[in-house]
What does this fold into?
Amino acid sequence: MNLKKLCEISEKPEIYEKGDAFMWDDEYISKKLLEIHLSQDTDLASRKKPAIEKTTGWILERLGKENADILDLGCGPGLYCEIFAGSGHRVTGVDISKRSIEYAREKALEKHLDISYINENYLNISFEEKFDLIVMIFCDIDVLVPVERDRLLDIVFKALKPGGMFIFDTMNGETTGIMKDGERNWEVSETGFWKDSPHMALSESFHYPENNVFLNQTIVFSEPDEYRTYRFWMNYYEFSGLRPVLEERGFSGVKKHENVLTSDDFYCGSAVTFYETVKPERII
Ligand SMILES: C[S@@+](CC[C@H](N)C(=O)[O-])C[C@H]1O[C@@H](n2cnc3c(N)ncnc32)[C@H](O)[C@@H]1O
It folds into this structure.
C-alpha cells in the first residue's frame, strides 16, 4: 500500500460513515468473540457472571411478573436468557452471530431450558404484541446510528404487549472521562483477534462532541494491498436527550437507573445507565 493511501484511509471519517467489515458474524473473529463472551477474566463482549446475576435479578424485580414472555436482543451465547428461563419465563433470544446462537442452543438443550434462539439481524425481525419484557444489554443500542436506533425502537414497540416493558443500558456522559479523541493503538501479529494469519491492526478513537458520539476504528492490514475497516460508533446518552427519543416512538414512563452495576470496569461501572420504559396499555 502506498503511504498516501494509508493517510487517506486513516483520516477522521464523516459521522456515522460505515466501515467495510462487520466483526460479529465473521467466521474467524466470532470464534475469538465466543471465548471472550465466556471468559471470567474480562468484562468485554459479555460482563462477568456476578454482574450478569446482579443485572438479571434487578430486571426480574422490575418486571415483577411470573411466567412472562421475554425477548433478549443481541443475546450472544445466551447468558441472560438462561437465567430468565431458569426463573420460569418463556424466552426468545435473537443474535446475528451463528456461532453464539449454536453455542446457546446446545447449552439450552443440555440444561432443558425453554428458550427459542433465532439467528437473525434484530433490525429485520417482526413480532406483534408477543412479549411482556424486551431487553437489550451491554449498551448495544449505543452502536446503532440514529436511523437504525429509531427502527429498532419501532420493532421493540410493536413486539411488546400493551403494558410490556423495555429495559436496556447505555453509556452516559462519563464516557468522555474514559475514552479520548485521538487515542491510538497498533498491533502486529502472526495470529490474533482479527486474523489467523500475519496482520497489522491500527486502532484509533475519534470524538464527535457535538453529537455525543465516539468512533472506535480499527483498520486491519493483511497483505500489502488488503485491508478491512471495522467501525464501532458509540453514542453516549443523557436522560434529557434519550427520553424524548423514546417518547416520540410511543413509549411512556421512561425511568433511568444509575449504579445497577458497581464494578470499576469501563463497561460495567458508573458510566453505564439503565433505562426502563413501557408500551402504554392504551395507545392514545
Ligand atoms: C456486546 S455483545 C452483548 C451480548 C449479550 N447481550 C451479553 O451482554 O452477554 C453484542 C451482541 O449483539 C450481537 N449483535 C450485534 N449486532 C447485531 C444485529 N444487528 N442483530 C442481532 N445481533 C447483533 C452480537 O453478535 C453480540 O452477540
